[in-house]
Design brief:
By secondary structure, this protein is mostly helical. The chain has helices at about 1-15, 30-50, 50-60, 65-70, 75-100, 105-110, 110-120, 125-130, 135-175, 180-185, 190-210, 215-235, 260-265, 315, 325-335, 350, 355-370, 375-385, 390-405, 410-440, 465-485, 490, and strands at about 245-250, 255. It has 2 domains: about 1-135 and about 215-335, no CATH class; about 350-490, no CATH class. A two-stranded antiparallel ribbon has the order 1-2. The longest helix has about 45 residues, at about 135-175.
């Protein structure tokens, strides 16, 4: 709590203390790109928690047929998954900011990790840590400008590195008559002039980017925005996630509610398991999700919890709570399993098959749209991606169809319509899975502040039995389309999986 009090006084209301003239502030320097990527992830989290994004999550994602059919119809379970993933990403941002804070001179920045721990257990006042609502948009614009300038510097340095590599080859060619690029060989003087201009351009970009910004100025901005993001997470997901401090709003400022309000709300208990819709049923798009609360038409600009069914009482909004009241609750609040660990063995994520099946579905979708692309190589590649059990199921289904009387070319149109309807809800799940993996694979080069895909939108939590049944239907239908339309000689005799 000592560190928290220091931070409250230094960052909460009065800002950072001025450095002594004898001490020279440390600039971000080579850490500019890592800092810009951390800022991008922080802005991505902030943008994903806006009222419009939360409304889309609840009305579009939770009600999508793929999520309801393969993942879960339990809104409380989905809310817990979304919250856990956002908290994990915020933890990563806070860890990066803590590392940067260790390089600062101010003790309140060096102890940000302790402040963040206290923030997560509700023992510090979020109202005094984060930015006031009227200043957030200004800070966001400033951060976006710095990210954009740093991204340009990153591209400029890459181009400069390529030119300097060509310059080294030019020097080698002059000394040893070695090979050299055509541009430099044809006009070395012009190339050297371009290189000098590029170096000056990089110098100007470095001056306007995070490179020359003092850490004592950048770290507090990120640290305080982390507090705003965490407060927003508590407002949005607090009623359904039991280990989050209960932050409420009276329309002007944010408060931490009393512990009675924190733990007496029965609507916040989350289920320990989930069930997806039955295999035979199709979910209508306008179905009303059970246990859903009303959505206000005009949300408050401070950040309204659209999942709440009733407004907080006046005496509850004006009270401040600075702790759970017991060490056990503190210990529970610190323990949060990674969201990927929530997948059971009956799901694709728990079986390690989500990525493979997403690729299978994406390839099959492309072939359904254009059967002319099916050839021996594509057919063999698709077949090798399938586990042995799915191969057996596909071949068994195909043999059963060949024994049926009355199947002919006219059935191809029916199969195509059926597969297109299936791909309307199965395809987005596969694309989200591949996009989720791509966003994390190329995260080191990412300067994008758009909201990322949530794991609950992917095949990770999909029921394995239902997904495999859908894939079998998809591949059998594709085989029949190829066989009866005669669009490919490779498909005309044996079918796709024969």
């Amino acid at each position: 709590m000592v560190t928290a009090k220091i931070w409250l006084s230094e960052l909460g209301l009065r800002g950072l203390r001025r450095l002594e003239p004898a001490k020279r502030p440390t600039t971000v320097g080579i850490l500019a790109f890592e800092t810009a990527r951390t800022m991008s992830l922080l802005l991505s989290l902030y943008n994903s928690l806006t009222d419009s994004e939360i409304r889309a999550l609840r009305l579009d994602v939770f009600r999508s047929e793929g999520v309801r059919y393969l993942n879960s119809t339990d809104e409380g379970f989905l809310l817990n998954l979304a919250c856990s993933e956002r908290i994990e990403n915020l933890d990563r941002v806070a860890l990066a900011v803590s590392r940067l804070g260790k390089k600062c001179q101010a003790p309140e920045l060096q102890g940000f990790d302790k402040i963040y721990d206290d923030l997560k257990i509700g023992s510090v006042d979020v109202m005094k840590l984060g930015f006031p609502e009227k200043k957030i948009s200004q800070k966001i614009q400033k951060i976006e400008k710095l990210i954009s300038a740093t991204a340009e510097l990153y591209s400029g340095l890459e181009f400069l590195n390529e030119m300097e590599a060509s310059e080294r080859k030019l020097q080698q060619w002059k000394s040893y008559s070695g090979p050299i690029q055509a541009e430099a060989k044809s006009n070395p003087d012009q190339f050297l002039r371009k290189l000098a201009l590029q170096r000056k351009h990089v110098g100007r970009m470095r001056a306007g980017s995070l490179w020359n910004q003092p850490l004592e100025k950048i770290v507090p901005i990120m640290a305080r925005l982390i507090c705003n993001v965490f407060a927003r997470i508590c407002i949005v997901f607090g009623p359904y996630v039991s280990d989050l401090p209960h932050v409420v709003s009276d329309g002007r400022v944010l408060f931490i509610a009393s512990p009675q309000r924190q733990f007496d709300d029965t609507g916040r208990s989350a289920p320990s398991c989930y069930t997806s819709a039955p295999l035979e049923r199709s979910v209508a798009k306008d179905v009303i999700i059970r246990s859903s609360g009303p959505i206000p038409q005009k949300p408050n600009s401070v950040g309204v919890n659209i999942f709440r069914n009733r407004k907080p009482k006046q005496q509850e909004t004006t009270s401040l709570w600075l702790g759970f009241g017991s060490e056990e609750r503190r210990r529970i609040s610190r323990k949060r399993n990674p969201v990927t660990k929530e997948a059971s063995k009956s799901t694709l994520g728990g079986s390690g098959l989500s990525s493979r099946y997403a690729t299978v579905i994406s390839v099959a979708e492309r072939l359904v749209r254009c059967p002319d692309l099916v050839d021996d190589g594509t057919r063999e590649e698709l077949y090798e991606m399938l586990p042995a059990a799915v191969r057996v199921a596909v071949n068994t289904r195909l043999r059963g169809l060949r024994r049926c009387v009355g199947l002919g070319p006219s059935d191809a149109d029916d199969w195509r319509e059926a597969l297109e309807r299936m791909m309307d809800w199965l395809g987005p799940m596969a694309h989200s899975t591949l996009r989720w993996e791509t966003e994390r694979t190329y995260e080191q080069q990412r300067f994008d502040s758009r909201p990322t895909v949530l794991l609950l939108q992917t095949l990770y939590f999909s029921d394995r039995e239902k997904t495999e049944a859908a894939i079998v239907e998809l591949l059998v239908g594709l085989s029949c389309i190829c066989r009866y339309t005669n669009t490919s000689s490779a498909c005309s005799s044996q079918g796709l999986m024969s």
